[in-house]
Amino acid sequence: MTVWLFTIDVPLYLPQAIDRILDAHSERIEKVVLAPPSSDLMIRQQYRMFGPVDSLRMGRLYAQGAALGLLSPAHQRRLTGRLHSVRAAAKAHDVPVETVSDISDPNFVDRVRSAAPELLLSLVCAQRLGSELLDAPEWAINLHPSLLPKYRGAAPEFWALYHDEAETGWTAHVMVEAFDAGPIIEQRTLPIRDEETLHSLTQRLSDVVSDFAIDLVDAFPDADFDTRPNPSTDEHYCPMPSVEQRKTFKRRGNRFL
């Protein structure tokens, strides 16, 4: 069976997870598709959520990781014991990687349709997958970092801490055009620790998602998932936090780093 993996290339969290997934299934994953968001939009959203001081601190971590990610996979492993870019992970496992600025482009959709992957697996893909793309594979599954239907949309890790949840986790669901709204296949929970920061929670979530993704791919080609409903009402959708919500988050003693 063949899998196309849709994701983004950020240096802080995803590279280690993608590395483990490809290590287990490089023979099945035919291509890694990087579908980045608008860089201007991402910067504005991140600045609004983190604020000036924590934006600088996160930016420093991001820049350090991005610089390491430019090195060869072997050099990255020698220096830090891990990889710092999704592109490097794909290269290390000889899996082709392609950056697509618009995954709704008809030419790209036609190429996916011609390749006819059995599974399109989305892990933090930053672009909306339209109906024509979703119809191309036999299965299209997204991994979302919350226990749906709670915290559909952006920054679910933030909202889990904001609402003082005892646990969070990942949800594998069938993809539909609406974000995070398809039927639920399976969920994996992760307890939230005392004194958890947004950075530590996001890192721990990325550490456990690889096993989840590996198990999903293992289920094919004989997958016969028993799905359950995923109610998608407005109350379950959470956008990026506002400036006031960020200030409330910090007033309550929560920390980003």
UniProtKB/TrEMBL annotation:
A Pfam cross-reference name: Formyl_trans_N
Transferase as UniProt keyword: yes
The organism's place on the tree of life at top rank: Archaea
Name under which the protein is recorded: Formyl transferase
Molecular-function annotations in GO: methionyl-tRNA formyltransferase activity
Protein keywords: Transferase
Classification via PANTHER family: METHIONYL-TRNA FORMYLTRANSFERASE (PTHR11138), METHIONYL-TRNA FORMYLTRANSFERASE, MITOCHONDRIAL (PTHR11138:SF5)
Span of domain Formyl transferase N-terminal: 102-208
The species this protein was found in: Halogranum rubrum
Record GO cellular component, one term: cytosol
Transmembrane segments: none
